[in-house]
Structures are given as structure tokens and as C-alpha cells.
Amino acid sequence: MELKSIKDVKNAKKFGLKDGAKLLISLVFLLLAMIYASFHTGNLSDNAGSILIVAAIFGCYMALNIGANDVANNLGPAVGSRAVSLFWAIVLAAVFELSGALIAGEDVVTTIKKGIIDSTLIIDTQIFVWIMMAALLGSAVWLNIATFIGAPVSTTHAIVGGVAGAATAAIGWEVVKWANLAIIASSWIISPLLGGVIAAALLYLIKRTILNKKNKKAAAQRVVPYLIAFMALCFSTYLILKGLKSLINIDFAYALLTGCVIAVAVFFITKPIIIRTSERLPNSRRAINWLFNIPLVFSAAMLSFAHGANDVSNAIGPLAAIAEVLEGGFGEMEANIPFWIMFLGAAGIAVGLILYGPKLIKTVGNEITELDQIRAFCIAMSAALTVIVASQLGLPISSTHTAIGGVFGVGFLREWLIRNTLKEEIIDAKKVKMKLEQKKLEDYKTELESLGKLKNIDPLFIKELMTKINEEKRLIAMATEVDFKTTKIEKKAMKVVEQHEFVKRSALKTIVAAWLITVPAVGVLSAMFYYMLRGIML
Predict the structure, then answer these.
(1) 268 CB neighbour count, 10 Å cutoff
(2) Which residues constitute the domain of residue 395?
(3) Which of 102, 327, 383, 413 is the most exposed place for a label (fewest CB within 10 A)?
(4) What is d(CA 502, CA 344) in angstroms, rounded to the nearest whole number?
(5) Could you report the per-residue pLDDT of 70-111, keeping only the tens digit for each?
(6) What whole-number distance in Å separates Cα of residue 312 and Cα of residue 345?
(7) Side-chain half-sphere of 296: how many Cα atoms within 13 Å?
(8) Using an 8 Å Cβ cutoff, are 398 and 154 in contact?
(9) Helical pair 313-326 and 339-356, crossing angle rounded to 10 deg
(10) For residues 159 and 111, is the Cβ–Cβ distance under 8 A?
(11) Which residues pair with 117 in a beta bridge?
(12) What DSSP line would sit under 91-105, residue for residue?
């Protein structure tokens, strides 16, 4: 069975304006960003002010590409499963991306600013500024190329590779904090694995508690409200910790307690809604799927908020560092991120999503594995949990890796489950065959007994009948000895089904290849742009 096509996703790139109009709007946005940045150069010299304006343009260009490439990972499952239309998914994501960036984005911005290179080795502040500008431009160009060819790549990979590449070109290998880079790189490996495990665990839980039950409606009425309440707990706790910290100092325990109160309220509000909705539905998996529309949309909003908080750093981290250096803070790098810089990054992500985001939704939503609402909910929830925890710790993980890991986790779980199902079906078939053989044996015995009551029976006929009975006994004994083990042919058949029905191996290879290429490619581009900028400015 081939992966089913989903109309909403296949037509995703038809949404919006023509390419020429999109390009014009993008240029207008960059022009407005340039004007907006010019209002924040009052304390700088003319030269420093001009540099900051150019850096702001590069940062906004990077933010546009983040919105175009990376945000599709949040929307793909929701749109691919047809839980929400493409238009409303983009509106939802734009609002929550903007909110997440402005409310909770500062911690990971600090990680990007200070964690990749050793600024104490850079004596000339101009060199530092050129490094950051080259990193922004190189990362943005690579993301633009990746979006154009339809490849979902990590924006975190891009900016880290850009900073490391430009710094190495300027100073040498020693300027890069390789230990810190290794810690960040380990999170790129952990995040897809963790996302995949959480998504698979959620899907398995839902199957055990709802889908495998005889009365699916009653099971859904019990379980779905708890799933929604759990999402409310995670989202509200994180929002309280990050959104209110500038107004009131509240520790994790009190935030968690408040989140529990909100989760209980959400549980009692949503439970009657789920019950009323499910009563009108038939007792089938397809009907139960629609009950997950609400939690799926909610989890997509939560993931968008977490993505905005985590990935805004990729656009404005270097820009914030440039602004700080130009204002005389080189070497300190402890000041808060200016609001105008945060706003530029958040607005750029939202505009990029609206203009160019639909293109990559097809890849995430349809081209890896077939999704329905339940599977999409598990993917979105696992990605949200992983990214929120990372943002809380100030660790700039790849949301792309996390979301894609969740997609593959769901697909591979389906393969594992179908393999076990096929084994059970084979065993059941063999048991049925064995029962048929036993019935034939009983029929032979009955026939032999009836013949024995008659006179003048040919002894040769009785001998042949006994031979058949003995053969049936031997076949039954053989079936018992092998304990219903699958044959090599049956195993090969199951392997073919696993590889072609649930997860596209070609998609896995393409995505992994894109991930491997991103860091060195951006490093080389950023090094080239560093030499170009240095030549122009000197």
C-alpha cells in the first residue's frame, strides 16, 4: 500500500501570492526593518550606525528563512492529518511564534551569543562584527537554498556552523569553543531520538488505552481529557516561568502547582465537550480520530510557542552581539537583549512563515509516513515537550530534528506493531489449519469405524485409509514441534511490508544527508562572506 496523498498538503504551495509578489513583500519588510533599526542608532557614530542597520537587514533575512523553512515542522502534522486548514494553521503559528519569541526567547539568545566562540581571543571589535554578519548572511543564504529545493534543514545547525566557520576564517581553529560545540552537537543527536521515543510511547499508550478497546468511544471519553489536561499543565507551567519572570520572581515548584490547577480546570471543562462530541460518533478508529482535533491544534500552538522561544536566537543572537559590541560592550556581553531586536526576529519569522512556509509543509506532513489526527497529535506533543525542556535549560536544540524524529518514531512504531500483528495472524492461521487437520482426522476415524461395521470390506481400502490417518497425525505433530514459528518466506514478506508501507526510507536518507551537509556548507559560505565583508569594509 502506498502512502495516501492528502489534498490539503499537496495543494499547500498553492496558498498565498505569486512568487513575484512574495519577493516584493519580503523586500518591503527588509526595507521597513532597515528604517526601524535606524531609529535605534542615536547613540552610535555614523559608521557604527550604518553597520548596525546592515546587520539588522541580515538578521531579518535570516528570520524570514527560519519562518519559511523551520516552522513547517510544527504545522506539517496538523495540516497533513487535516485537523486544521492550512490558512488557520499559519495564522495560529504566526501568533504563537511571535508570542514565544517575545516572551521566552532570551535564554537561548544568550547561549548563541556566548557559547560558540571565545570572544576574548578577538582583540579587534571590527573583526567580531564581521564574523557575526558573515554568520548571519551565510546561514540565511543556505536556508534560502534549502527552502527553494524543498529540504527541511536545521536553522540551529546553520547558525552554529556559520559562527564557527566565519570565526575560524578570521582567527583560527582555537577561537571556537569546541567543548561547548560538542555539547550542543550532542543535543542534535538526542533531540530526534527523544522526540521519536516520546511520540512512539504516546501512540502506543493511545492504542492500548483507546484504539484496541472494544468500546473505543467510552475509552476515548476517559483518556482524551487527561491528554488535554497534561498539555495544559506543560504549557501553562512553562508560560508562567518564562512570561512572568520579568514581573515576579516565581520558582518552579509554585509554577508547577499553578499549572496543575490550570490543568484540573481544563480537564473538567473539556471532558463534557469530549463526551458530547463522541456520543454522536460511530465506534470506529476514524471517528475517534476526530476527537483529537482539539488536542492536536492545542499542541501545535504549544509547539509554535516553544519554537519561537527556542529558534528566535538563530536570527537575532548574532545581531544582539553586534549591537552590544557597537555600543561599547565588547567583552562584557551580559546585557539584556533589546526589545527592538527581539521584535525584529519575531516579526521576520512570522512574515517568512506566512509568505513561504507552506512549501515545506508537504514534506513533513505527507512524504515520510501517513498521518492521521492521532499520529499527528503524538508527533506534535513529543516535539513540544522536547523543545520546551530545551528552551527552559537554555540549550539551542534543533526543532527540525525533534519534529522529524517524532514522525519517524510514529512510523517505525507502526512497523513494529504490524510485524507483531502479522506474526499473530500467521500463528492464528496455523492454528486454524491444525484444527482443520484434526477435524479431518476425526472424520477419517468416524469413516473407519462405520466401515468396520460392514462386511466384505476390502482390506486394501482400510490400509489406505489408515495411511491417511497416520499422515494427518504426522502433520499435526510437526506443527506442534515448530511452535508455529514463521518461515523465511514469511519473514521476508513482513520485511517488505515494513519498509515500503509505513516509512519511506528514501525520505530518511535525504533528510539525514541534508542534516550532515548543513554545518560544513554554512561554515564554508560564512567564511567566504567574511572575506568579502572584510574586503568591502576595509
Answers:
(1) 10
(2) 7-215+283-419+499-537
(3) 327
(4) 41
(5) 777 777 777 777 777 777 877 887 788 777 777 766 555 555
(6) 6
(7) 27
(8) yes
(9) 150
(10) no
(11) 176
(12) HHHHHHHHHHHHHH-
Q: Is 80 helix (H, G, I), strand (E, B) or coil?
A: helix
pLDDT tens, position by position, 10-64: 444 444 457 788 889 999 999 999 999 988 887 788 888 888 999 999 999 999 9
Question: What pLDDT was estimated at residue 374?
Answer: 86
Residue 350 domain-assigned?
Answer: yes
C-alpha distance from residue 235 to each of 29, 274, 365 (Å): 31, 20, 23
Where residue 253 falls among pLDDT bands split at 50, 70, 90? confident
How far is Cα of residue 78 from the mean position of the Cα atoms in its chain? Answer: 11
Residue 435 parent element (H or E): helix 399-452
144 lies in the same domain as 30: yes
- State the cell numbers at 227: 491528554
Q: How far apart are CA 122 and CA 509, in angstroms?
A: 39
DSSP codes joined into one string, 142-208: HHHHHHHHT----HHHHHHHHHHHHHHHHT-GGGB-HHHHHHHHHHHHHHHHHHHHHHHHHHHHHII
Q: What angle do CA 30, 36, 42 make, to 5 degrees?
A: 135
Q: Which three cell numbers stand for residue 12?
A: 499547500
pTM for the model stands at 0.72
Whether 503 and 377 map to the same domain: the answer is: yes
Q: Most distant CA pair in the chain: distance in Å?
A: 124
168 and 185 assigned to the same domain: yes
CA-based nearest residue to 387, from 97, 172, 132, 136: 97
**Counted domains in the chain:** 2
Pair (11, 68) in one structural domain: yes
